[in-house]
Write a structure and sequence with these properties.
This protein is mainly alpha-helical and 163 residues long. It is built from 7 helices and 2 strands. It has a two-stranded parallel ribbon with strand order 1-2.
């Protein structure tokens, strides 16, 4: 599903179709990978979860945030991340750091990505107990160290320092 969603050759998708396909992929990933790991007592780190859906499909695409939240609840059975880590960089910096050809969403106009970035920041400011924002402008080792410290502090777990 994600492959279809991100393939630049797949053409334009309706915004709600994009939302529902993203959430279908998330529901499946949750069922297959995340829930079994949590049941086994492991900590789980994923690169995107419901906070990303709010930023991209809600703030970026302009879908009503209350509808996006309800759809996320449905797809995840009400499971939300204990902690969201946002590595914040200006859109032009993030675009310059991309190593591969842009996927369908990455190829969107700068204005879309600005709305997404603002959306992430709004979500983080609205729920600071579940978000940690770190500037991505610092050297990678400093960013990694700040993230590890925040994860340990916020979740009450011991973490190994970055190499």
């Amino acid at each position: 599903m994600r492959e279809l969603l991100l393939d630049p050759g797949s053409g334009a998708l309706d915004d709600r179709t994009e939302l529902l396909l993203m959430l279908a992929a998330r529901a499946q990933h949750l069922s297959e990978r995340i829930e079994p790991a949590l049941r086994a007592g492991r900590h789980v780190v994923v690169d995107r979860f419901s906070g990303s859906t709010l930023a991209y499909q809600g703030h970026g695409r302009g879908l009503p945030l209350d509808e996006v939240r309800r759809a996320c609840d449905l797809a995840t059975g009400g499971r939300w991340a204990d902690l969201n880590v946002l590595v914040d960089v200006p859109v032009v910096v993030g675009s310059a750091r991309r190593h591969a050809s842009p996927d369908r969403i990455e190829a969107e106009a700068v204005e879309f990505h600005e709305r997404v970035r603002r959306g992430y920041l709004v979500e983080a400011a609205t729920d600071p107990a579940h978000w940690f924002v770190v500037s991505g402008d610092a050297p990678a080792a400093e960013v990694a160290s700040a993230i590890l410290q925040a994860v340990g502090d916020r979740l009450g777990i011991a973490v190994r320092s970055a190499p």
